[in-house]
Amino acid sequence: MRDLSSVALSRRAQGKNVGVRDLKTHAARIMRRVRDEGTSFIVTHRGRAIGVILPLPTDDEASRVADAGDAATAWQTFVRAGHGLERRFRPGVSGVRLLSTTRR
Amino acid sequence: MVMAKRRRPHSTSSPGTKNRRYTVDASVFVNAFNLHEPGHQASLRILEAIQERGDPVIVPTLLVAEIASAVARACDDSAGALRYANAAAALPHLMLVALTPVMAREAAELAAGHRLRGANAVYLAVARRYGTTVVSRDDEQRTRGGAVTTCQTPEEALGDLGLRGTL
Predict the structure, then answer these.
(1) Residues of chain A contacting residue B60, judged by C-beta atoms under 8 Å apart
(2) Which residue of B lies nearest to A58 if distances are taken between CA atoms?
(3) Torsion region of B104: left, alpha or beta (phi above 0 gives left; psi -120 to 50 gives alpha)
(4) Which residue in A66, A68, A102 is closest to B70 by CB distance?
(5) ipTM of the assembly?
(6) Are B75 and A64 a contacting pair at CB < 8 A?
(7) Which of B82, B85, B93, B84 is nearest to A71 (CA)?
(8) Tell me, what's the pLDDT at B83?
(9) Average pLDDT, whole number, for chain A?
(10) A45-59 pLDDT tens trace
(11) Are B74 and A11 in contact (CB < 8 Å)?
(12) Which CATH number applies to B20-162?
């Protein structure tokens, strides 16, 4: 059996390769790394990358500010809020440039 | 016996456009409703297209403060800016990722390695981690971020989805 240490990853590691055969053999361990360490894997078949296993954000890392229960309503609220601003933007003042300036 | 193949419902998007994930920069949200600024139509259209497709939008929590800040400065309407930023954060399919110590170290690594601005590094760290395409109107973010992940303007993202002609 191949030593899985070759696919042992630090949390910061990105996209380490794992072959389909190793994935089948060590699926539980690999999924634990995805879940517990936030590791991502590139799945390869005969040396070619064919897919990706990515961790989803955990509850403490990500949150939905609102329930997506009513998607249409959320979108309409967003558009309404945006249209409400249209006449408030000052001519000649670029929001994109302002944002870029604040990032300097 | 000959069996008729069941056809899948016709899709309006181009082939190969499924399973997209995006990190949309605050600059796109700031631009989307500013009629005085070039590109606003494409910015709003890509947000709309992503919403219609239901593609996940994975962004750092920083996005919300950046939208509020830039919009308030550009239009002198603090209440409206806050309302807009909160509405953006509440969009369906949008997922906010916190700047945890781990994520901060990833961003620092990118910032140092690619000479990125701090905020840009945070967006790119999220994009790299979740394998997303960055859509941005920030030229520097796209230029330097291109070494980290795919970075596109709203127009390029629309083109990729076969929606350029819908502008």
Answers:
(1) none
(2) B97
(3) alpha
(4) A102
(5) 0.84
(6) no
(7) B93
(8) 96
(9) 77
(10) 988 888 888 877 665
(11) no
(12) 3.40.50.1010
